Amino acid sequence: MSFARRSRRALFLGQTAAGRFICNCGARHWTCCRNRGVRFCFAAARSARPNSIVTSRLVPESSLSSEGARPDFLKRLRDAATQFALSDGLIWLHLLKTACAALTALGIAMTLELPTPPVAMLTVFVLMQPVTGMVLAKCFYRVLGTAAGAMAAVLFGAIFPQQPELYLAVLTLWTATCTALAVRFRHFRWYAFVLAGYTAVLIGIPVVTHPDALFVAAMTRAAEVTIGILCSAAFSALVFPVRASTALMLGQRQRRGAMLELCADVLASRCDDASFQRRFAGLAGGIAGFEAARTFASYEDPNLRMRSRRLTAIDSEFASLCSRLHVLEQQIERLECAGTNALIADVSPVLRQAAALIDRLHDERRETTDPEPLTALARLAASLAPAPPLSPRAGQASERGASIDEARTMREALRRLIGNVLSYLDAEAGPAPVDRPSRATLPPTRTSAYVVALTFVRNALTVGAASAFWLLTAWPSGEFAVIAAAIVSGLTSAAPRPEKVSMQIALGATAAVALGYVYLCFVYPAIDGFPLLCAVLAPILAGSAWLATRPPVSGYGIGLCVFFVVLAGPENAMRYAPDALLNNGLAAVSALVVAVLMAALAFPLQTPWVVGRIQRDLRREVAFAWTTRLEGADARFHARTHDLSSQLRMLLVPGTRRYDEAWHWLLATLELGQTLLDLRTNLGALVSADPSDRHGWARCVEHAGRRVADLFERPDARRAALAVRAAERALQRVGAQTRRTARGPRQLALERLSGDLYLMRSALLDYDAPFHRHDASHA
Predict the structure, then answer these.
(1) What is the pTM of this model?
(2) What is the pLDDT of residues 542-572, one digit of tens each?
(3) Which of 62, 471, 576, 698 fits as disulfide partner to 693, beta carbons 3.0 to 4.6 Å?
């Protein structure tokens, strides 16, 4: 038999047997040669040589299917279960815990024969969150808010007995003041103020004509809320708890990797402008989220409270690193736009070296960072130390004088970025404090005064209109209108689109009235006993909680559960009065519609003048960076700036002209604000060492800083030109002082000050900056 016939016979062996072809290449192949109707190994045929024979064998299909089938199935089942547990499983767990905790609170309140057991169930619904730390934090602020609201209701009732007009007026002002103060705080601290506002209404309105019952109403309300708080905390912390500290540590590692990756991509020119803006916005927007996760985790882990100062330092270093990265990216973009190819080619090796070292840090998968790239980065930063400036004559004679200045600016920006990377990694890897636990100072918040004022006026008019309607018409169900107005005013105070959330709550309340009628007329009379009551209430609670966990439709869940419990919640002595339910529901929905109109027509937050005022407050943070005290100035500046920028991002639609304008102002504020902070730090060190400098070149530096602050206060082309000239004059004076100073620490400090001025001048000369495109009439 010839070689070709022997090879074909070996390859096509098994024409009469059904099975999977296994050849000497070690693979299982299902490739079918249709024209011959056999199973064929193309891999073996391609690899066969003329002087070799391919051997093969047939394995029965049954034996192959049983081999490894069970482990593969179990592995796929385990992977699917893990994926479900990490995604939808957490949601179902949250719904189950919410329903069980709410029904448990309802049962305890009914057993104790409290007057309004649904309040305990409603408290659980409001408090329950997917993460244990969030529930504990909200419980803490719920206690504070309930206590403040109860005391206010009793106090106002004692001051204005048998005077419902004055009592309603002071309750309206109290509610509006609390909701206005709430918008000045982040996370669940706002919840304490909101709760203090509408708790006074919930306690005082039902007994407004019976002031002698105020104290008893406040005490029973506190007891019902306490039951709800205890049930929420117990179920969240003891039944399959989801720890915020775990999410915090995971988020910290992910944020570290994303930042190092972005730094390396910018240095290696692997990131275009659109991609940089998208990724940078995500990292900058996550600063407040990290601080929120740290706050929540501190309520469930005492050890984390002891490390609060370290975590605050990590967040501060991360915010500074964001500013440094933006400064460097702007320098690279300016050089590319200017077409200085020779300078780019001269600096590129250093950028690529830094990118390679940061890539090694990003590729590190262990908790401890490899010290070798850290040491190499430190050496690279030391090699980028600023050199003494050239004399004016030499700089003017050289044709590359401008290029030398740009090179100095680029190297200084790169040196500071590397320094911030090392500081951030050092803060992240630093040991936890072992001394007594100290409470870290909370980052300051910054909310536009116009937003606070608009919130106060809008909520005062909403609650005041409902109160006046009740007094004028003497409608028996008017109290529910006041209660609904107070609730919706508080819950939508921190929403970027209060009219949208109010409309969702109104529609949810309408559905609650319909469901309440069905339950009151058909469901409650048909059941007997607490187990059946739990069975019919569980779908309402779980469905409302599911809607509330979806931010786009959260208002529907809130309106459905809150007003179903308020209007048709089960009590120990049920009153089957459908007419009262419909009247109360009509009053509540009418008040919610009034709240929608007030938010949409009277005082919308998206109006251009409101956005313009918030944008002006954002620009004023540059002046804040120049005038605030230096101790802790970096953390305060970044916290306030990111607060205002997050408010603008919530109010504006991405892709619009106003959104792009606000984004460019944020970048300019971060760049020049950070530069002014560095300038003040280096200038303060020099002047404190030699006070006589205050009347020399230091005054030129201070004048340049004031010019920049004035530019951001009232941006126009004239002030931009004045700021550029002031920066250049200060740069000349500092350069002359540096050349007259002997080599030593003082000259190094002067060189660092020159680096600050170079960065300032470069940012001011950027013609894409927003202050070159806006005059004072648009400010």
Answers:
(1) 0.78
(2) 999 999 988 889 999 999 999 999 999 998 8
(3) 698
